[in-house]
Q: What sequence folds into this?
């Protein structure tokens, strides 16, 4: 289980999260929704260890181990992975070399990299030409997101933090990526503002965050309420 207990986070002098508790069981798909500026992305970035975010209280446990103060690379080795809403462009860095180097760091060896890459590419129906480009520099939003998903499937994390994976995806791509998430054994914390994702995702729980606090939790029925009424009913 990935446990987020009493998490408070600030950026500079501004407090963004206030005593957030979340629990993501092995293989579970947990949704985090909320209005703009509510702290959704901050949860993922602070869990992963983004230095722009200061954790002022709380702890993060991964299968019972306290990983709160570990740097991002060590959290990754423990089994935590993040799909970014806007993946970084890196001019001069070949995508395939980057993915291979990351795989070797994660797995300790790249001896089976080509075999596993071929398997994931086939499973995703992934355009291999993307791997010949510099990392994200000439790719569309959808192509960048698919490269993030490819890495997730290669690295097989215990838990994945997904920051608005639907951003940049057309309907067909949204459906195919959702199917890959549904078929994964990883636990997921999925940030979204788009109720349309519920058409394709197998969701175990929906959490609503507002003003840095978890204000409500429930099942998929909450998505229909949000689509109809927005977040005004929480005021």
A:
């Amino acid at each position: 289980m990935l446990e987020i207990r009493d998490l408070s986070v600030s950026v500079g002098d501004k407090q963004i999260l206030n005593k957030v508790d979340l629990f993501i069981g092995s293989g579970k798909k947990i949704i985090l929704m909320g209005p703009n500026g509510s702290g959704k992305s901050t949860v993922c970035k602070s869990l992963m260890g983004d230095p722009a975010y200061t954790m002022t209280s709380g702890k993060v446990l991964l299968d019972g181990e306290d990983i709160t103060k570990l740097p991002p690379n060590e959290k990754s080795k423990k089994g935590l992975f993040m799909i970014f809403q806007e993946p970084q462009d890196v001019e001069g860095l070949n995508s395939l070399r980057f993915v291979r180097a990351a795989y070797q760091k994660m797995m300790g060896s790249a001896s089976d990299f080509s075999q596993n890459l071929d398997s994931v590419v086939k499973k995703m129906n992934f355009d291999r030409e993307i791997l010949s480009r510099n990392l994200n520099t000439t790719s569309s939003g959808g192509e960048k997101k698919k490269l993030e998903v490819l890495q997730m499937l290669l690295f097989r994390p215990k838990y994945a933090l997904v920051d608005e994976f639907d951003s940049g995806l057309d309907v067909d791509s949204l459906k195919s990526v959702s199917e890959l998430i549904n078929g994964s054994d990883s636990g997921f914390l999925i940030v979204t503002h788009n109720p349309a994702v519920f058409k394709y995702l197998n969701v175990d729980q929906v959490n609503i965050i507002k003003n840095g606090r978890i204000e409500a939790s429930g099942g998929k029925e909450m998505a229909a309420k949000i689509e109809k009424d927005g977040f005004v009913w929480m005021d």
User: Anything to note?
Assistant: The chain has a mean pLDDT of 90. The CA atoms of residues 10 and 16 lie 5 Å apart. DSSP finds seven helices and twelve strands in the chain. The longest strand covers residues 14-24.
